[in-house]
Amino acid sequence: MSGKKLLCCGILRHELEHLLGDQNFNITYLDAALHVDFDKLAQSVTADLRDMGDGYNPVVIGNQCHPEMEQMVAKYGGRVIRAKSCIEMLMGEKMAELDAEAKTFYLTSGWLENWRQIFREGLGWDAIDARQNFGYYDRILLLDTGIIPIDDIDLLEFYDYAQVPVEIVSVDLNNLRQLLDQLLGG
Length: 186
Description:
By secondary structure, the chain is an alpha/beta fold. It folds into two domains: 4-84 and 174-184, Rossmann fold (3-Layer(aba) Sandwich); 88-170, no CATH class. Helices cover 47% and strands 19% of the residues. The protein is built from nine helices and seven strands, in the order E-H-E-H-E-H-E-H-H-E-H-H-E-H-E-H. A four-stranded parallel beta sheet has the order 2-1-3-4, sandwiched between helices. Strand 1, helix 1 and strand 2 (25-30) form a beta-alpha-beta unit. The chain is globular, with a radius of gyration of 17 Å. The chain starts with a strand and ends with a helix.
């Protein structure tokens, strides 16, 4: 896989760098907050794929992060990883089981690092907006891959903002590893 190019959502930066290790990839990371604006996300994906040039360009972005993600990527010879979102990339089929238990909003360490940029700046949610939007959920599950430490202060500040109980759930990287292998032809 030497010298391959990869376009990825910045939310999964830590997980991808861990899994890809010392393999020679030229990785372009998209700003994590682009999910909140389809036009900006499309512009960034298109520009980055154009910059990557001809050839096979794998993309690690959920195919439901933008309603036209697969079509956009296909125009530039790319292929999107086979998952709806970063959460599904990490959880796989276990997500349906957890969804059946309660109305659940999921966070990754990347989401926790970027929540202010995504919700406050990107969506413009103040505390009232956050409580109205997160109030639909019974719980928030923070998926802990064990790669980077969870910042307790960030977690408490996010809880204070969302006002929904946050539970930490350990997850491994097996599902993401398998999806990457399929995408990269390994």
